[in-house]
TrEMBL record:
<dbReference type="GO" id="GO:0016887">
    <property type="term" value="F:ATP hydrolysis activity"/>
</dbReference>
<dbReference type="Pfam" id="PF00005">
    <property type="entry name" value="ABC_tran"/>
</dbReference>
<dbReference type="GO" id="GO:0098796">
    <property type="term" value="C:membrane protein complex"/>
</dbReference>
<dbReference type="InterPro" id="IPR017871">
    <property type="entry name" value="ABC_transporter-like_CS"/>
</dbReference>
<keyword id="KW-0997">Cell inner membrane</keyword>
<keyword id="KW-0067">ATP-binding</keyword>
<dbReference type="GO" id="GO:0089705">
    <property type="term" value="P:protein localization to outer membrane"/>
</dbReference>
<dbReference type="InterPro" id="IPR003439">
    <property type="entry name" value="ABC_transporter-like_ATP-bd"/>
</dbReference>
<dbReference type="InterPro" id="IPR017911">
    <property type="entry name" value="MacB-like_ATP-bd"/>
</dbReference>
<protein>
    <submittedName>
        <fullName>ABC transporter ATP-binding protein</fullName>
    </submittedName>
</protein>
<dbReference type="GO" id="GO:0044874">
    <property type="term" value="P:lipoprotein localization to outer membrane"/>
</dbReference>
<dbReference type="GO" id="GO:0005886">
    <property type="term" value="C:plasma membrane"/>
</dbReference>
<keyword id="KW-0547">Nucleotide-binding</keyword>
<feature type="domain" description="ABC transporter">
    <location>
        <begin position="10"/>
        <end position="230"/>
    </location>
</feature>
<dbReference type="InterPro" id="IPR015854">
    <property type="entry name" value="ABC_transpr_LolD-like"/>
</dbReference>
<keyword id="KW-0472">Membrane</keyword>
<dbReference type="GO" id="GO:0005524">
    <property type="term" value="F:ATP binding"/>
</dbReference>
Length: 231
């Protein structure tokens, strides 16, 4: 991996994405330029329908752009075949959603172990990593609990720990505390910021909460299909 790639894990250059509708072509993103640096946490503050989810899907290699480049660790991921994109997504990108999407039949620890084992990590090493992450999120006593036995805040902590399990270079989060009450959201968000900064992950976090956005390194919004820096 080049130094450029590791210092700037994600770079989007003139990225475009449109969709076909009954009324014709709908241009959602027209020219997205974004650089995420290692250890930087960027707030994406954008109204519903502005293309926020489309942007996150492109950044996370879940979708391909119609134009422009999505550079992951210095490589043009848009030009890679699907299997290579899947490998990058598995090894280098962590996702956190508003709803935790934990596997209900597996314990908190197993939910963090599984993605590591899929990536080729031994069970022993994966369990050690999972226990360390759960302890860091104050869940050392919950490792054997099924998601249904955890509170909403605890479930989301497990989801964040799972997203960080494979030591990603990039973390993408879509309203990660949007399903939590204000007090719990504040606690979980503090833990998320601490973990991301501690591991020097480049993070793009979509949120409607101005208080949370203000605590990140910088804020951007979507306007007319472009990213605009907010003061």
């Amino acid at each position: 991996m080049s130094n450029t790639g590791s210092d700037t894990p994600l770079v989007m250059e003139a990225v475009r994405r449109s969709y076909r509708t009954d009324a014709g072509s709908l241009d959602v993103l027209t020219a997205i330029d974004l650089t995420l640096r290692a250890g930087e946490i960027v707030a994406l503050v954008a109204p519903s329908g502005s293309g926020k989810s489309t942007l996150l899907h492109l950044a996370g290699l879940l979708d391909r752009p119609d134009g422009g480049r999505v550079m992951m660790d210095g490589r043009d991921a848009g030009a890679l075949p699907d299997n290579a994109r899947t490998a990058i997504r598995r090894d280098r990108v962590g996702f956190v959603y508003q709803f935790h999407h934990l596997l209900a039949e597996f314990t908190a620890l197993e939910n963090i172990v599984l993605p590591q084992m899929i990536a080729g990590v031994s069970r022993r090493a994966a369990e050690a990593r999972g226990q360390d992450l759960l302890a860091a999120f104050g869940l050392g006593h919950r490792v054997k609990h099924l998601p249904g036995k955890l509170s909403g805040g605890e479930q989301q902590r497990v989801a964040i720990a799972r997203a960080l399990a494979n030591k990603p270079g990039v973390l993408l989060a879509d309203e990660p505390t949007g399903n939590l009450d204000t007090k719990t959201a504040d606690i979980v968000f503090n833990e998320l910021l601490s973990a991301v900064r501690g591991q020097r992950v480049a993070a793009l976090i979509a949120t409607h909460n101005p208080d949370l956005a203000a605590r990140m390194d910088r804020r951007v919004t979507l306007e007319g299909g472009r990213l605009i820096d907010l003061p």
